[in-house]
Amino acid sequence: MAEVKHLEDPHKSENDRKMYKSLVLGNGLQVSIVSAPSVGIGFPNNSSCALMIDHGSFADPCNYQGLAHLLQHMVFMGSTPDSAENVFFAHVEKNGGECSSSIFSEDTLFSFTVPDEHLDSSLEYLMFSLKHPLMLQETMERARALVDSEFQQKVQKDVLRRNQLLASLATDGYPHGSFNWGNMKSLKDKVDDSALHRALHDAWRDNYAANRMYVCLQGIMPIDVLENMVVRHFSKLLRNDIKAPDLTKFDYRNAFRPAFHEQVFLVKAVEKWRKFELTWVLPNMRQYYHSNPDKLLSYLIEYKGNGSLYAYLERRHWAHYLHAGIDETGFNLHSMHSFFKVDIGLTDEGFQHIDQVLSATFAYLKVFSNCSSGSLRQLYEQQQKSKVAEFRLPDRIDKHDVDELVFKSKYYPPKDILTARELYFDTDEQHLSVLIST
Question: In this protein, which residues make up the domain named Peptidase M16 C-terminal (predicted)?
Fold first, then answer.
């Protein structure tokens, strides 16, 4: 059997009947395994797998913006020994499963759900697609068309437009300032196809290696059966020991030009709503997962009881929702910085009183900045107890758990992949106070 190093098992609730294993294969690929023989997963007798590669759009060269997205599609456009395109996706869907792929700032994700009897063969197809992609130059045009089509579908989404606005304010030289989605303009106009084709192969060779991959496999089979399956398939992948770019060298305090901090931007929404958004740039908050000060601040801002900001705005018919916190995906949270947002959905009346909404919001935040250390500790302890109670609820499984767990397996120690960003291990009222004052 291939070399395997077992890591510390994740901490789980006493009511969680699932079994977990964390391990590293000899080629450096890190694996999380979940077995739930007594509860099933979403659909009866289905298994799920997520494979994440430590390579995302922030690594795109400036002359090929969208390269990581293009590579995501090219990898599955034919492989040896079967040169047909998209055979992995076709195999999964033909056998009653579903699959998806996504590109993020630092990562590329492939995941699928399939009936148990087809899990073994689906893993084989996935492994061959990743290990032996043809990536022929003649298929590049179709891959570019897919990238452009996805961009055209998303370009009218206000979230994407907002992200691109913020990207345009990035400090020169910071990777979040480029056009990471990609389209025909960035990948075809004034681009030499032969050079682009070479860049694709270089990106695959340097980044699609076992030591840059994370796998989470979840099924109803015994955990040893799942382990043998993942070891048998993924031990075949090669390593290269090339590391991902170090984004921590970019100081979050210098991530944006002064205009980001000094100007108000009015954007006409495509979708039919009005909202008011405040955005702060914070350090990468994953590093503070033991105390989660941003999570506690989110809870305080979103509180809807008497005396809250939301109660004040709703009573005046100025707002119909209020969200606060960090969206833990892609552009909003990565190794350089985090975006903490206060997002208020405005009514027509609220839009007419936007100055008062803004004043009320900052006045409410100032209340927390004046809280004593003892009061903040008490709030921490209340949330600690509440989150522990939630964590102890009877376990549930759905097919999307593998996506979340595979992300956590990269960014947190194995023992914490179930609890990180969920529980408050420590109270850190001083850090919370600093965060509020920011």
Answer: 199-367
Q: What is the pLDDT of residues 183-199, one digit of tens each?
A: 999 999 999 999 999 99
Give 4's strand partners.
25
Domain that holds residue 295: 273-437
The closest of 125, 274, 141 to 196, measured between CA atoms, is 141
- Closest C-alpha to 438, from 313, 228, 282, 225: 282
HSE toward the beta carbon, residue 75, CA cutoff 13 A: 28
Summarised one tens digit per residue, pLDDT across range 46-93 is: 899 999 999 999 999 999 999 999 999 999 997 775 667 888 999 999
- For residues 140 and 66, give the distance between their C-alpha atoms in angstroms, rounded to a whole number: 13
Over residues 17-38, mean pLDDT: 93
List all residues 6 or more positions away from 323 whose beta carbon is below 8 Å from its beta carbon: 302, 341, 342, 343
- Sheet containing 98-103: order of strands: 4-6, 19-25, 30-35, 213-219, 46-53, 108-115, 98-103
Same domain, 238 and 319: no
> Number of folded domains in the chain?
2
Is the peptide bond preceding residue 258 cis, with omega within 30 degrees of 0?
Answer: no
